[in-house]
Amino acid sequence: MKMKLATWATAAMMAASPVMADLVFPSLSYRTGAYAAGGIPFADGYADYLTLLNERDGGIGGVMTRLLECETGYNTEKGVECYESTKGEGALVYQPLSTGITYQLIPKATADDIPVHSMGYGRTSAKNGNVFSHVFNYPANYWDGASGAINYLLETNNGDISGKKIALVYHNSAYGKEPIRTLQGLAAKHGFELLELAVDHPGQEQKSQWLQIRRERPDNVLMWGWGVMNQVAIQEAVNIRYPMENFIGIWWSGSENDVLPAGDAATGYKALTFHGVGSDFPIFDDINTHVVDKGLAAGAGDQVGTVLYNRGMYAAMLAAEAVKTAQGIHGVADITAAMMRDGMEALEINEAKMASLGLPNFGPEFTVSCANHGGDALVGVTQWDASAGAWSLISEFKATDSSIIGPLIEEDSASYASENNIPGNC
Amino acid sequence: MFYREAGDFSTTYPQDSQTFPIRFDRYRYYAVLAFAVLVLPFVMDDYLVNSIFLPFLIYAIAAIGLNILTGYCGQVSLGTGGFMAVGAYACYKLMTSFPDVNIFFHVILAGGITAAVGTAFGLPSLRIKGFYLAVATLAAQFFLVWLFNKVAWFYNYSASGQINAPERTVFGIEVTGANTEAWATYLFCLVFTIGSAIIARNLTRGSMGRQWMAIRDMDIAAEIIGVNPLKAKLTAFAVSSFFVGVSGALFFAVYLGAVEVGEVFGIQKSFIVLFMIIIGGLGSIFGSFAGAAFLVVLPVVLKLVGVDLLGWPTDIVAHFQLVIVGGLIIIFLIAEPHGMAQLWRVAKEKLRLWPFPH
């Protein structure tokens, strides 16, 4: 029985993959489960941008793109299965949108010579390209997020937050635990008190955490949440009448899905970001003309211009730019995953490039190098206005505290290098 | 026709009490074993091993473990995920504390540690049964996951709270870590699966298994005829947890390589192993294999048919999978409570008589 199924499975796979020159972008998406609210818009944005390139430009450098979507449900095992089933089709880069799956893929993809781009998630110390040769997390990572949030608080408190009490409400997983060390370091440096409150998967039950916040009255609350946890947390904050302007979420806790259920009371909630918000960019005209109006939009097609749609589109844009860079380096249009890695390592995003793509001022400028796979770590802050129904950027993209983050990255990547006997790539 | 016992004479007691008394059955079993050991490793690739064979082999061990407890001894357990986590974390602590000891022994020791933990959590079974025991084991599930998340010593104080399997070798061949060969991990797990199945088969048909089954069928009657319920129930918990622990250790070290306890060993894991033995067949070693194979292969096949062949959206296929698994559980509970193992048994009975109806 086993043998029959295996043969049949292989036969089905071969039948399903026609051989032709194309640029394969696997999309390890999740449109089901407790995290679908975040997974759907991201996957739609990623798919629509690649469709736009095919429809408008005839692919990248004359080679068509092909999207391979695989449902992970934010589940690690399914993520591994998706990786194994798509890597044989010439996948160029993996963007799993899950810190757990990223941890799985780091050793596997490095061994298979396929790059991984964990944009704003994953293992933070992957910024050190000397150790993590195939993992990229530009333009910003969690530790930049933690530092960016504290910097913003410093700014709004005239540079002094000593003696303040700051609570961190986090998803009790690798993702949520990532910022704790940085925040502890920053707490020691700036003299604030850090209160750590863990929320277990999936995050629907947070009464006790918010009761504690009500009792301890922290000056600010930071949140590292995802999926249904965000909506619940914001609703709970409204319920205890916590002042929304003192509540800051990481970029994964700052989409329309998270604030809409709380209604008008969510006005003033802030979230970090590493790219622009809203649909006021020229590229959306192209997306409407070439993708939505032709009926080619991914999913239900109702997510265009939302925060996470923009992020998915931004991820696809960065991947496409890396392909162009790789095509330039190697002089080949139909690149391989190894060439893609070189392209990502030489990627440079500047204002002229973004403006030519129809995304003026969409994100910070940054360059990637062999030693620095994390970009320049610039973080902005957005705020929600329920009456306008929109997020707006209230703080420009600013630098984060590399004096705290740098040594932590060195330490964490050095321990990975010694565990896995990595000599160094640069 | 050729599948019958005619002409197959037993001249000794061991021959009479062997697992596969019919000659054709026995040769088929040897053929499957030989195929699994001698042929499959040569055709193994990354996709087959990571999508089908490793999960199948490892879930089969877990299903055998749970089947001993639930199928043979009648004690319902919803703590399988938690016990698998004990195996995984025990294996991780052993691997990092004693790097010179072979991973093979770490996996077995991890099973032993899980057996001790499982016995401790089995103590309430002496007083409570049925739904109440299910709830008590559910408490074990949540407590163990909480513990591994809360106490940083278990994950060696890593920043993310994840455990990562370092590279370990058996006979100089890597079986854990990133640079493993597909056939090596497959064979490593296969050894444990075959060993578990043989041990479980022989335990369940011996005096210990008879005691378990007596307790399952009616505990008061069993006590009256001289079965010690304390011993029977606690040995069932210990043996069951041993297998579950071994599977948890392999799941972490060989299959995934990096584990986050809440996500990998959550309540979902307990349910999926329970579904495996319900669909496969309670109280049957073959049923454990059938159930594990079914629930591992079904999503892969559905995905291949739905997404790759028919081109349906991925979320529709994912939802269909939930519907189909849920529907199958209801169908099996109503139409064939003994699961696929019973279907197999009935098919064999029919084959023995074929082509004559009586």
Describe this structure in words.
The complex is a heterodimer of chains A (426) and B (358). By secondary structure, chain A is α/β, with parallel strands linked by helices. Chain A has 15 helices and 13 strands. Chain A has helices spanning 2-16, 36-57, 76-87, 99-112, 142-156, 174-177, 180-190, 207-216, 228-239, 256-259, 283-292, 307-330, 337-345, 351-356, 402-419; strands spanning 23-29, 65-71, 116-117, 135-136, 165-171, 193-199, 220-224, 247-249, 270-273, 348-349, 366-367, 378-385, 390-399. In chain A, the strands form 4 sheets. In chain A, strands 6-5-7-8-9-12-13 form a 7-stranded mixed β-sheet. Chain A is globular and about 60 Å long. In chain A, 58% of the residues are buried. By secondary structure, chain B is mostly helical. Chain B has a domain at 21-264. Chain B has 15 helices and 4 strands. In chain B, the strands form 2 sheets. Chain B has a two-stranded antiparallel ribbon. Chain B has a two-stranded antiparallel ribbon with strand order 2-3. The longest helix of chain B is centred in the last third of the chain and has 28 residues, at 229-256. Classes of the chains: A alpha/beta (426), B mainly alpha (358). Chains A and B meet through α1, β2, α3 and α4 of A and α3, α11, α13 and α14 of B.
